[in-house]
Design brief:
The complex is a heterodimer of chains A (475) and B (283).
Chain A lengths: L1 H4 L4 H57 L2 H14 L5 E8 L4 E4 L11 H4 L17 E10 L2 E11 L1 H48 L19 H62 L4 H30 L9 H17 L3 E5 L12 H19 L4 E8 L3 E8 L6 H8 L11 H11 L3 E7 L2 E9 L8
Parallel strand pairs in A: 5-6
Antiparallel strand pairs in A: 1-2, 1-4, 3-4, 6-7, 7-9, 8-9
Helix pairs in contact in A: 2-3, 2-5, 6-7, 6-8, 7-8, 8-9, 9-11, 10-11
Chain B lengths: L5 H23 L1 E5 L1 H4 L3 H15 L3 E5 L3 H9 L5 E3 L2 H6 L4 E8 L5 E2 L1 E6 L14 E4 L5 H13 L4 H4 L2 E4 L3 H10 L4 E5 H10 L1 H4 L2 E6 L3 E2 L3 E4 L6 H11 L5 H10 L3 E3 L7 H11 L1
Helix pairs in contact in B: 3-11, 3-12, 6-13
The chains are: A alpha+beta (475), B alpha/beta (283).
Chain lengths: 475, 283
Amino acid sequence: MARVLRPLPLSLRLPLLGAALMVLVGVVASQQVLSALGRVQDARLRELAAMHVEGLSVALGPLVLRRDIWEVYDTLDRAGRESEGRRMVLTAVADEAGRVLAATDPRRVPVDSAIERVAQGAVPLDQLSVGASESTVRLIAPLDYQGRSVGRIVTELDVSDLQSERRRALWFLLAGNALATAFLAGLGYLAMRQMLRPVSTLAQQMAGAEGEPQPIAETDVPRGDGELARLARTYNSMVHDVAAKSQFERRLAERERFVALGRLSSSLAHEINNPLGGLLNATDTIRKFSNRPEVVTASAELLERGLRHLRDVARVTLDQNRLEQEGTPLSPDDFEDVRLLILPELKRMEQRIDWSAPEDLTGCAALPAAPVRQIMLNLLLNASAATGPEGGVALHALLDDAGLEIDISNSGPPMSEAARARLLSDEALAPGGGVGLRLVRDLVKDLGGRIELARADGQTTVRVFLPAREGATDA
Amino acid sequence: MTAITRRAAIMMGGLACAAIPMRSLAQTRFRLGLTPVFLDNDAVIIDRLRHVLSAAMGREIELVQKRTYEEVTGLLLERSLDAAWLCGYPYLQHREALALVAVPVWRGRPLYQSYLIAGQGVAADNLSDLRGATHAFSDPDSNSGYLVTASDLIAMGTRPEQWFSRAIFTYGHRNVVRAVADGLVQSGSVDGYVWEALATVEPDLTRRTRVIGKSEWLGFPPVCARKDTENAEPVRALREALLGLSRSDAGRAALAALQLDGFQTAPEGLFGGIATRMRLLET
């Protein structure tokens, strides 16, 4: 029952349970009424039968003693004709030996036949009951006269009217109970629905239009200080908190991009600054040896190379800021850009880099560039920080049918517990720690991918799987 | 007698004075016996007959009803009744002591028949077919309700208690018809006049019976008195009243209710047939 009801909404389940209880109460009450009615009818029947038997005993006693068949018959016939409503269908009187003296229907119960034939199923007065199956019941009673039993009386009583009265009562009760139950269940349904409306609203708002919990409108919040009102208000404040948190996280992620760049800014500044000396020398050389075309040409080429490098550095830095989350699809250039961004930092830290990236990304072109670049950059920065000066960092990107796998390893010590928690779980961020690894986790999750962490041969490897996205083959 | 005081003499005289009107009152009331064997107890018919006779005789009539012929005959013989409407059979049983006052005329003659009746569904066409049946007689002193069938059986060389599996007495011709019609018994012996009268007033009752035998015509049940009072004033008055019933409207109405034509003096040898049957029974 409970299992059947479980899929139904609470606002339907409770009224249904109420109605079921009403039906139960109705059934029990009906049973009580019917059994009371049955008792009253039985008592009435017994009283009537007792009067009948007593009356006959008084009238028939001397006649039975004399075995006056005609007088016994005449008395029975007249008594039967005068009895109300033909309750007594048949009465037979026998002598002591059990031979029938007369019956109201002599053809059915002939004179001198055995009373046992008609007494089958007959019960004594104290066991007489209307019953439900037979339309007639039979009574057997001794015929007492002057203090001794002179014969026996068997009476068949028609109880069909009492049974139909009972059936009528049953139908009235059924109909009445059904109506009352339906009416009260309807009322209960409406009342419960009204009472549970805040809960329905809450459930609706929790599911939300775009999968996001929505706050309950102020007009729908129940009035007063009831538990439902408190529930709605608490829910609203929770929804606001969640919204604020995700907004905060969005802002944090946004900022993380700059944070990564910030961390790279000094090495990028070096990257720009270092060639500047060479470039200024080249301009001096051009001024000094302006009459020597081969020198001018060589210096101009040097100048051009330096400027081109500067332009590339400036471009990737700008690109990193400009990229939209869902904008441009990932391309082999993005790997190059990340390499270009991270190289100065690695150089500053005097670290080696082992780099291999696919040259063709047709299979997973639908992966967006910005989050993948952010993932790689954050993990490389982390690896660089973990491995320390003169360490080794590696990036291997592989493309297969399932998607893109990016392995980023370093030769530093194993990852700390806090860092693992940030990268592999949804535990709340401990204050003071960076958000870079958590951002990686969030981005991978958004892309439907997964992260594995492995430690082998003194190498810590973070393995990121990004599944190929739908429409990838079309791209 | 000398011991009688004056006061006692006065008291006795007072008692004697008081007794005279009581006695004369009792004498003026005529006591007529009836049996339900004959008329059953139709109170309206009996009351009408009483009124008519009472008016014709100029005196009050007390109708005394008893259950059996034996009781009524006994009361008549012991002078508790002045006259009684009996049956030819008890009259003949006591013919030395009884005298005929008048006899009813039914369908023009002072004669009637005994009917042998059977219930519907009883496969019998005569008395011979009723061997082993249950049978109802009206009264052991009734000619039509007992004597006729009993003497017929004796003529057949048997007796009622041997021929029938069970014979009962209902003490009323109408009761015999009821017992047969209701199936209490399979057959019955009944007064033909009563059966015919019932066929008119209660056709539903007689329709459930079938006449399977009729006797010869026999003397109709007569009104009798004791021989010693036969010519006394009240009995003569009764005879006059009975014989004159058909001459007054009230009398005719009473006779019509009884479905009789009138009363007449009994012709000689009216009960010869019954006497013959009685002799058969006594053998």
